[in-house]
Amino acid sequence: MGTLLKYGDDLTQMAHEGKLDPVIGRQDETDKVMRILSKKRKNNPCLIGEPGVGKTVVAEGLAQLIVRAANIPLKLQGKKVISLDMGRLIAGSTKYGEFEERLTQVVDDVKQIEGEIILFIDEIQTLVGAGAGGHNALDAANYLETSSC
């Protein structure tokens, strides 16, 4: 999980250490995310909204509920919520293919611990077209969609 944590944060660990602010007023959104994550299929929620409306807060709230094991479905108990920071993933990737390599390493980390983490991709819209620098280049959004993670 080294590459994943190089470019992301373990929100569950942060919640365990008391490093996250209490979440207030997001119970409906958090409940909906838990319902979607608990489904057998089509279990990838996508939180959409303008910057600052609270998408990250919902992910943090989920991590806090998992740590407290409070009112969460059995399927989510013991999971880790990892927030992938797209800024960190993209930053400094100046060489051709460097971003794609980083993303591939992150996906490999996710696959190694399949079923143990919930990956929250903050600013996911930055993935569309990211890495598409040439005719054979990787479009990060398409890569994630087809990578079976």
From TrEMBL:
Q: Could you tell me which Gene3D superfamilies the record lists for this protein?
A: P-loop containing nucleotide triphosphate hydrolases
Give UniProt keywords alphabetically.
ATP-binding, Nucleotide-binding
What are the GO cellular component annotations? cytoplasm
Q: Which residues form the AAA+ ATPase domain?
A: 41-148
- Give the Gene Ontology MF terms in alphabetical order: ATP binding; ATP hydrolysis activity
Q: Which GO terms describe its biological process?
A: cellular response to heat
SUPFAM superfamilies xrefs: P-loop containing nucleoside triphosphate hydrolases
Which PANTHER family does the annotation name?
A: ATP-DEPENDENT CLP PROTEASE, CLP R DOMAIN-CONTAINING PROTEIN
Q: What is this protein called?
A: AAA+ ATPase domain-containing protein
